[in-house]
Design brief:
five-stranded antiparallel β-sheet; 14 strands; Rossmann fold; alpha/beta; about 300 residues; about 35% helix; seven-stranded parallel β-sheet
């Protein structure tokens, strides 16, 4: 079982990027010291099946732990079936005991952006999970995007996350990047994210904006012209970083949208097949060029996919 993420003690700024760092020693932050693991895809026939498995992961975590659970929600298509299922069940008392133990966090965001913008992850979670869910859970902590100081907001956010003892389940997807690279949460290639970085603020790119807007539209969100104009004016990405991912007790990874984002097939295959170097500098360069590879350094990853993700 992974240890909780370390309490942030300092920041670093490089080339316009801001990262909240953990208190681990330099030796512990050496990525070549981390064991690389294979990822074994589990193939399901429908998003609904994957949604039921994702809910089962939360229920298993609850059964194996006393007290509250901390989960990180995934934006986009990867967990929408689970959110719809949970939202329906939240209308009854079927999940009340579980929901009453949940501290729920978001993992990334574009900023500045009104919190009620149709392209905000928070608005999408409200649409899918429903009002009953948010009334019944113990707490909901989004990354605040209506701010002119994302660095301070992200520091407050990580401090609250850590005050609850770290992450029990981190739901993750995989975003395609050029050259079959990938982003994880919104950790972009070339963002300089290191294993000690819990969360960061980086400059936005046109590819991220297009990916973000497209996945919301495909997922069924109501997006007005004004929402899209405001979203395209966002300047920064706020995201959890490698230390949060590596410190989570369980990662539940999913890809269900290769039909509308076919580049994910090659990006996922590269994550599966890349041989990670034992040399620290080389491995660090691999991770920075293809952040999806951080998945390979976690000992407890469950990867849930549809058949078309593995199609040639």
């Amino acid at each position: 079982m992974s240890a909780p993420v370390q309490q942030p003690t300092n920041h670093r700024s490089i080339g316009g990027r801001f990262w909240v760092r953990s208190s681990k020693s330099a030796a512990e932050n050496n990525p070549s010291k981390l064991k690389a693991y294979p990822i074994r895809p589990e193939v399901f026939e429908s998003e609904e099946e994957i949604g039921r498995v994702q809910l089962d992961e939360i229920q298993q975590a609850a059964a194996g732990k006393d007290g509250d659970l901390v989960i990180i929600l995934l934006g986009g298509r990867g967990a929408q079936a689970m959110y719809r299922l949970v939202g329906q069940m939240a209308e009854s008392s079927a999940l009340d005991a579980l929901l009453g133990r949940l501290h729920v966090f978001t993992q990334d965001a574009l900023a500045p952006l009104r919190m009620n913008n149709g392209l905000s992850f928070v608005r999408d979670f409200e649409r899918l999970l429903g009002a009953a869910f948010f009334k019944k859970i113990k707490s909901f902590t989004p990354m605040r995007t209506d701010t002119d100081n994302p660095e301070d907001e992200l520091t407050r956010y990580t401090e609250k996350l850590e005050s609850l003892g770290g992450i029990d389940i981190f739901f993750l997807g995989l975003g395609p990047e050029s050259g079959a690279a990938s982003h994880l949460a919104y950790i972009k290639p070339g963002s300089g994210a290191a294993s000690a970085d819990i969360a960061g603020v980086i400059s936005i790119s046109p590819s991220i904006l297009e990916h973000h807007i497209n996945k919301f539209k495909v997922g069924g969100s109501t997006v007005t012209e004004a929402d899209e104009v405001e979203c395209r004016a966002a300047t920064h990405i706020m995201t959890l970083g490698p230390a949060a991912i590596l410190g989570a007790r369980r990662i539940v990874h999913s890809i269900v949208d290769a039909d509308t984002a076919p580049a994910k097939r090659e990006s996922y295959r590269r994550v599966l097949d890349t041989e990670l170097s034992e040399d620290n500098d080389t491995r660090a360069a691999q991770l920075d060029a293809n952040p999806g590879l951080w998945l390979r350094l976690h000992p407890s990853v469950r990867s849930l996919v549809l058949p078309d993700v593995l199609a040639a």
